[in-house]
Amino acid sequence: MSNPKYKRVVLKLSGEALAGDQGYGINPSVIQSIAKQVKEVADLGVEVAVVVGGGNIWRGKTGSEMGMDRATADYMGMLATVMNSLALQDSLEHLGVETRVQTSIEMRQVAEPYIRRKAIRHLEKKRVVIFAAGTGNPYFSTDTTAALRAAEIEADVILMAKNNVDGVYSADPKVDQNAVKYDELSYLDVIKQGLGVMDSTASSLCMDNDIPLIVFSIMEEGNIKRAVLGENIGTVVRGK
Region annotation Involved in allosteric activation by GTP: residue ranges (predicted)? Predict the structure, then answer.
């Protein structure tokens, strides 16, 4: 059996990735495919935590631009991530993967509240832990949640699975045909060049805690496993 390069990982999934080609909501075939890929990694003995965005259902920033109170709009976005997390949990458990959802906003009827030590214990028992409801605070993205949780649980790497791009480019490859794909970058490069890999808060948090990031496409099945095995896919962003 192949030896994984990382023992404990945080997988960051965008909400849009769950929508697939339909662009909104949860695409059953897509979430089943992602669940199968997560199971592949868990079967290697890797401890997997997942952070899911909510952009396929609601974006707090969009609500704010419509004139809604920003905090209210962001809380709605956090609830969208809970819906996505429960859907992913259901898909994983249909595959026989033991899973726990922990939310930053308490809703005990559907999930556990986030407790760091409990999350680590679940991981040690080889349960997949899904972190929902962002950080529990408005004005912070799920990218920042992924960086924060990765630091808290001492993850070896953040795997950022994208649905429309296979790495980090110098410009939007859909718009600029001359856009260059980077194999490796530093967080400082990302912040200085405004490359939009993750927001500046998340990038700074990763840089300060020396957490590497791998950006790759989720649309090619098996890519999560390839990233965990240390294969050369996507773009690697490092602290230094």
Answer: 20-25
Burial class from Cβ neighbours inside 10 Å (0-12, 13-18, 19+) for residue 136 reads middle
Instruction: List the binding residues.
Output: 12-15, 54-55, 59, 74, 135-142, 163, 169, 172
pLDDT by 10s per residue, the chain, length 240: 579 999 999 999 999 999 988 889 999 999 999 999 999 999 999 999 999 999 999 988 888 889 999 999 999 999 999 999 999 999 999 999 999 999 999 999 999 999 999 999 999 999 999 999 999 999 999 999 999 999 999 999 999 998 878 899 988 888 888 889 999 999 999 988 888 889 999 999 999 999 999 999 998 889 999 999 999 999 999 976
User: Which residue is associated with the tokens 């965005």?
Assistant: 53
Q: Which residue ranges make up the annotated binding site for ATP?
A: 12-15, 55, 59, 163, 169, 172
**Residue 189 backbone class (left: φ over 0; alpha: ψ -120 to 50; beta: rest):** alpha
- Taking the complete model, does pTM exceed 0.90, yes or no? yes
Tokens of residue 6, six digits:
């990382």
Q: In sequence order, what DSSP letters do the residues of 122-150 get, joined into one string? A: HHHTT-EEEEESTTSSTT--HHHHHHHHH
Residues at the binding site for UMP are 54, 74, 135-142
Q: Which homologous superfamily does the CATH classification assign to the domain defined by 8-238?
A: Acetylglutamate kinase-like (3.40.1160.10)
